[in-house]
What does this fold into?
Amino acid sequence: MTTRADESYALLQEVAAVAGFPATGAQPIRLAENDLWRLPAQVVVRIARAGQEDAAAREVAVARWLAENQVPAVRPLLIDQPVHGRGRAATFWDLLPPHRHGTECELAPLLRQLHDLPKPAFPVGKLDPFVRVAERLAATWSVNSDDRRWLLRRLEVLRSRWRDLPSGLPECVIHGDAWGGNCAVTDSGALLMDFERTSVGPPEWDLTSTAVAYDTFGSLSRNRYDRYCELYGHDVMAWQGYRTLRGIRELRLVTFALQVADRAADARDEASYRIDCIRGRRGPRPWGWTAVG
It folds into this structure.
């Protein structure tokens, strides 16, 4: 029987050959929505899910733009890319040396650098904070009908509030998924990675990721959160629009947990707990959510 890894490796062989690299000896880094492989040539291949050809091209363009502006980030190879195969797009990147995830305080200065840049000449697209939320709610079977209806109503309320956000910091290019896992720290320092969600939008969206770690998850102390704000130069929680962005982040995190729960039974309790929290059944924040997936 052909496995998921077998299918991904067959595609890797195809796109690597087009780019001029042998795939023999390649090792999987992660096979999920996007497949990541490490080639013996010290190259990382990122194979996007189907239908994400434009996003893959934008990731490469953003990374090259960051390099031009001296923002520390992962670097794409200087080849013609993305490479396409079987309806999917593959991009090729320099392999990082040994590294770890960044802390919020290592991430903050990088976000400040990114947000201070003028918008690039190429199109980056506008932030859609609701991408895939409705699709996840429609597809999941790890939720009862009453909770599904409530979550869909919550989605519409948040869509309305998003359209009427109060004024805040000037719009700019944002990372879109600004958490420690997308900040790598090597012996040479911290750098940004994973530009799948990079777009033009309110910088508060990036800042809300860390605020939610403190406010919703309870995984970040007040002192560490205050230090993050000091290093970036702004506290998003003091902004009137914060509660809307927090609500959108929380709904995204609920639907992601449901997506994981559909394939992993050990995530179902956490998904149900998250629903109970945002429905007001578990008292005030922080709720102590634990990671899934």
Q: What stands out?
A: The first strand starts at residue 27 and ends at 31. The radius of gyration is 20 Å.
